[in-house]
Amino acid sequence: MKPSRNTLAVALLAALAAPAAHAEVAIDVIHDSEVSFEGLIQADYNWFDSDVANLNGDVPDGLDSDQELRRAEIVLKGKGPGNVDWVVGYDAKADKWLDVNAKYKLGGDSNHYLQLGQFKQPNSLEELSSTKNNDFIAKASITNTLAVARRLGGAYSYGTNDWSLTASYFGRELTRNLAHGSGYGLRGTWAPINQGGNVLHLGVSYVDMDTDADTVRLRARPLADLAGVRLVDTGSTGILNADRMSVIGLEGMYATGPFKLQGEYMKAQVYRYATGVATQPADAYDADGFYVQGVWNLTGEKFGYKAGVPTTPLPDNPGSGMWQLALRYDRLDLNDGYLAPGATPTAAPVVRGVLGGEQSSITAGVNWYWRSNFKFMLNYVKVDSSRYISSARADVDDDPSIVEARVQFYW
Question: Which Pfam families does the entry mention (predicted)?
Fold first, then answer.
């Protein structure tokens, strides 16, 4: 169901009525719980210089651009009673629940936490970082394709600001007809350097989950959230006879003063059972990818670090704001198979395994954080992709360029 115009209007008016402060808006103390209100409004514009596929293909208007309200998030938070913190979040644009959970601190000075409800699972440094402070308009391909985001479940965590261990068990997403498949996740982080504005972060994560429908489909947009097609895709029928899927992630981040270097590698493995179909063997299917990115605060603000993720500072001078330059290299490989000769010399070759394609990209961006509530982003993306197309009997290269812009208001 699409959100009504009235729903989006109410969300926007609530945002504009909020005072100009970065922190959440305090509402009241209700039953010993300090209740506050947060929000995020994002509007995106994408211009496509398509190569082979029409990146605006889902809109039959002949245009080479698209614009859309990307997010309209409303979040209520509470501190208390006692050692309990809770949150209820909803995205009116996507018509889905966000974080809806309660977190309990075991003991007054304890570093042990229990969390129940819907929350981001313990994997992916980029996925766990705050959406309002994304370094680029579109998240990396591995984050959108292989990372597990919000699910209903329970988690236990223990650690300090220098290290952490988290274990979770999860089921489906709270909103109906979205992500499903039960599983578990583990993540450990360590910051051997964490003082004086210098941070070195290392992390490893592992997620294992049931495919639920015995099929898995992996695909990725060309680093543009409004693109109507995916240039790499394991196919509309998915990876058949799939039993379970696991994803291992390695992450690293080094921040020194106004500069941050960050990267992640993920490898997914789909465990399969035999069906007797030659083109869908019982062999496991593997996919992997990585990204490396750097961000420089031109105005000198220093990056921070909290709970195993980097934090973005507010502008030192709110009137002129904080300027950032960002550069990212991104790669995703969905190929795990080969072409076998056809039955006759003129027959089409037969795909053994899965040939979902390969995609790499370079993204250059400039961000402007103005005052405490506004952010403006401009990205240029150059994509290089290749995928076997059965109708062409060959690998088809598709190398588009994209210009992306975002306006954001948050409190």
Answer: Porin_O_P
Query: What residue segments make up the domains of the chain, in order of their start?
Result: 39-71+112-410
Q: Where are the beta strands (DSSP E) in 50-162?
A: 65-79, 84-91, 96-105, 112-120, 150-159
Residue 225: CB atoms within 10 A of its CB come to 17
The tokens 């304890």 sit on which residue?
A: 110
Could you say which DSSP state residue 131 is in? G
Helix (H) or strand (E) holding 125: helix 125-128
pLDDT on residue 343? 81
Per-residue burial over 97-110, b if 16 or more Cβ lie within 10 Å, else e, is bbbbbebeeeeeee
| CA of residue 298 relative to chain centroid, distance | 26
CA 182 to chain centre: 19
CATH topology of domain 39-71+112-410: Porin (2.40.160)
The C-alpha atoms of residue 378 and residue 349 are separated, in whole angstroms, by 43
Report yes or no: 288 and 260 within 8 Å, Cβ to Cβ.
no
Looking up tokens 């889905």 gives 96
Amino acid in the structure at residue 280:
Q
For the beta carbon of residue 369, count every other beta carbon within 10 angstroms: 26
Of 77-81, 259-263, 275-279, the poorest mean pLDDT is in 275-279
**Residue that is written with structure tokens 């899965």 in the block:** 354
The pLDDT score that the predictor gives to residue 73 is 97
Q: Which amino acid is at 135?
A: D
CA distances from 44 to 10, 201, 358, 383, 403 (A): 19, 31, 26, 19, 11
**Which tokens is 222 given?**
């060309």
Q: What is the DSSP string of 210-221?
A: E-SSS-B--EE-
Whole-angstrom distance, CA of residue 377 vs CA of residue 44: 9
Type and span of the H or E element at 144: helix 141-146
The pTM of the full predicted model, rounded to 2 decimals, is 0.90
Two tokens, residue 357: 């394609």
- DSSP H/E element including 14: helix 5-17
Output the DSSP codes for 39-59. EEEEEEEEEEE-SSS-TTTTS
Gap between the Cα atoms of 222 and 230, Å rounded: 7
What does DSSP assign to residue 392? T
- Residue 250's SS3 state is strand
Q: Tens of pLDDT along 338-390?
A: 888 888 888 888 888 899 999 999 999 999 999 989 999 999 999 999 999 98
**What DSSP designation does 314 have?**
P
